[in-house]
């Protein structure tokens, strides 16, 4: 045991003593620190309750109700179908979390965090989705051991290699895409791109945002067959089919090919190519010079990620660029989000793990990418971006 371990062992044995805790809570030089640590520990224990206060606010649509100004307890109780007493309990709880603010005389309006949520509808979609995660986390040890199928694995069927309903997760990804698309595109030199290829890009929300930034850009979104159909419809509805296309394929084997490469290459995705896709030509915008993986890498285990990176390295143009954009572990100021939130979330999902930017860059180097760099984003808590060159 090294000197640091011995010091921490002594320190933690001292902190664990009830007598020392009582002394530290009274002594002027340690009182504030002691109280802060006690508060931190309580907030960890109470975190689930706080999240359920937020869930109740979302379920009762309180933020939209108060968008135009404050209202009284009686009025809000009538709208929400609660007693005045129950309504006041929720309102005060939400105000303590800064979702709402108390305006006096039992009147409540928006708080700073509630107002911020109104500007980010994707947050509301994630709050609703979290009820699925929380059902699994009623037994966190079972999630860690993966003893039984989880509700989250059923929600993301591709993560465990099975077929399933694509609608729920496609809608969630679309709703939450706005949270990150702006930050990603703000840090990319889009004026240099001619053809963007978005791998596992869902219903095309990201390329829709990219096309609005660059009028000369062409774009392709690739995903599973059913998801690609949703993307093609969205692109058609937006009048973008002259500049954008949706193709289906297997990102692990043929990441930069469309439906014509789908035959016999879908085992890892757990899907079967539709027969009529076998001879469907892929519209030709030329080889992509910008390839994006938006919130994809952390969904997959290391072996699959390396398979994807190697396939991309072999198939990308020498002058092309690869963009990896997602929340990453060890983000300064958001360390708990990486290993605690995403660690347990991905464990329940059944695939993937949170990775640091350094881990991702090391995997890119191992796959043969000659260099990579991290680009600065406005909100690294939400998304960080790595740019790699083959």
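^ structure tokens above, recovered residues below v
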């Amino acid at each position: 045991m090294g000197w640091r371990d011995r010091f921490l062992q002594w320190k933690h044995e001292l902190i664990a003593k009830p007598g020392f805790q009582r002394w530290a809570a009274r002594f002027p030089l340690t009182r504030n620190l002691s109280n802060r640590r006690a508060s931190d520990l309580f907030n960890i224990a109470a975190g689930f309750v706080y999240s359920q206060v937020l869930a109740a606010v979302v379920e009762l649509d309180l933020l939209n109700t108060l968008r135009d100004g404050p209202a009284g307890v009686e009025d809000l109780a009538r709208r929400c179908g609660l007693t005045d007493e129950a309504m006041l309990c929720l309102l005060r709880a939400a105000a303590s979390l800064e979702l709402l603010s108390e305006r006096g005389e039992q009147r409540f309006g928006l708080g700073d965090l509630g107002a911020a949520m109104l500007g980010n509808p994707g947050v509301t979609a994630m709050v609703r989705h979290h009820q699925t995660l929380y059902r699994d986390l009623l037994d966190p040890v079972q999630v860690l051991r993966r003893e039984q199928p989880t509700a989250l694995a059923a929600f993301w069927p591709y993560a465990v290699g099975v077929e399933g309903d694509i609608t729920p997760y496609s809608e969630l990804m679309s709703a939450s895409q706005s949270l990150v698309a702006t930050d990603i595109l703000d840090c990319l030199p889009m004026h240099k791109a001619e053809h963007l290829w978005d791998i596992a890009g869902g219903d095309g929300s990201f390329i829709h945002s990219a096309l609005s930034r660059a009028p000369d850009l062409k774009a392709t979104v690739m995903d599973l067959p059913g998801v690609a159909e949703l993307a093609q419809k969205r692109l058609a509805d937006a009048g973008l089919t002259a500049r954008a296309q949706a193709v289906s394929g297997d990102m692990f084997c043929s990441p930069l090919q469309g439906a014509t490469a789908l035959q016999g290459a879908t085992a890892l995705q757990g899907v079967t190519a539709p027969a009529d896709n076998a001879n469907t030509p892929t519209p030709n915008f030329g080889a992509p010079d910008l390839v994006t993986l938006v919130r994809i890498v952390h969904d997959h285990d290391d072996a699959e990620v390396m398979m994807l990176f190697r396939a991309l390295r072999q198939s990308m143009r020498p002058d092309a660029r690869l963009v990896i954009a997602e929340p990453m572990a060890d983000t300064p100021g958001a360390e708990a989000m990486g290993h605690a939130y995403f660690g347990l979330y991905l464990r329940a999902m059944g695939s993937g793990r949170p990775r640091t930017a350094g881990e991702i860059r090391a995997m890119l180097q191992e796959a043969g990418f000659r260099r990579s760099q991290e680009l600065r984003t406005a909100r690294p808590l939400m998304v960080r971006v790595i740019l790699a060159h083959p």
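The first strand starts at residue 71 and ends at 72.
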